[in-house]
Every structure is written in C-alpha cells, then in structure tokens.
Amino acid sequence: MSPRPFRERLGRRLAEARIAARISPRDLAERAGVHPNDVARWERGEVAAPASFVVAAAEELGVTTDWLLGLEEQPRRQSVPAGAIDAALLREAILLTHPDRHPPVRGERATRVTQALNALLDDAS
Predict the structure, then answer these.
(1) Residue 42 is part of which domain span?
(2) Residue 125: what pLDDT?
(3) What integer pLDDT is reported at residue 26 of this predicted model?
(4) Whether residue 59 is found in the same domain as residue 100
(5) Can you give 39-78 as a three-state secondary structure string?
(6) Which CATH number does the domain housing residue 29 bear?
(7) Whole-angstrom Cα distance, residue 25 to residue 27?
(8) Residue 81: its pLDDT value, please?
(9) Domain tally for the chain?
(10) Which segments of the chain have a pLDDT < 50?
(11) Closest by alpha carbon to 48, among 57, 20, 30, 22?
C-alpha cells in the first residue's frame, strides 16, 4: 500500500476510535505524551503517526494496533469482565485529582465522571 492511503486510513481509524472512546484529542495527546497538534495532524492523515504513538493510542482507546494499521477489519476491543469499570473512565477520574487541572474544567469533568461511575454502580447492584 502506498504511503498516502495508509496515512489516511490510520488517521480515520485513530479519530474513529478516539471519538468512540469519548476522549478529546488533547486528552489523548496528554495520555500518550505527545503534542495535541501532532494528534490532529495524524488524524488528518498529513503524516503517519509513529509506532510508539500507535501502540499507546491502541491501549488508551481499547483497540488493537492491527486494526489501527488496517490489518484487521474489526477493532477487537479488549474483553472486560462483567461488572468491571472501564479503564478509560478510571484514568479520567485519576486525572481529575491532578493539582494542575484548571478548577472549572475539573468541576465539569468531575460531574460527568461521577455520574458515569454512579450509573455503573447502579447497574452492578
């Protein structure tokens, strides 16, 4: 496959998985240790994302690297035991406690995370 279609497919799949996981480009960049502008460029297919980011993104987004790279047709999300709390939700809850977070952002996100955790607890009982 030539470079351009590869970059474009990788970018589409990165964006699709990120949106499905309800993670902003900025949060994905922060979690993967890259600049948010790089995530945007990779999702647009301007340049191919480095292997280290593909691996980190696959882990954060719950998809396989093979799917992101176009080698598989299904994302094959990792199976989660019944009653388990989503890892992305837990990571977000942990990030909310970071002292550098801006208070208004923390408040809005904290409310959303708290509601999601409460819904999970209600479903489990």
Answers:
(1) 3-69
(2) 54
(3) 93
(4) no
(5) HHHHHHCCCCCCHHHHHHHHHHHCCCHHHHHCCCCCCCCC
(6) 1.10.260.40
(7) 6
(8) 58
(9) 2
(10) none
(11) 57
Q: Which two tokens stand for residue 28?
A: 């994905």
> Would residue 79 count as lying in a domain?
no
Rounded Cα gap, residues 88 and 125, in angstroms: 22
Backbone angle region of 74, left / alpha / beta, with phi > 0 → left and psi within -120 to 50 → alpha = beta
Q: Which tokens is 48 given?
A: 């191919």
* Judgement on whether residues 54 and 96 belong to the same structural domain of the protein: no
Residues 64 and 119 in one domain: no
Distance of alpha carbon 9 from alpha carbon 72, whole angstroms: 12
Q: What is the pLDDT of residue 9?
A: 93
Residues 62 and 95 occupy one common structural domain: no
How high is the pLDDT of residue 77? 55
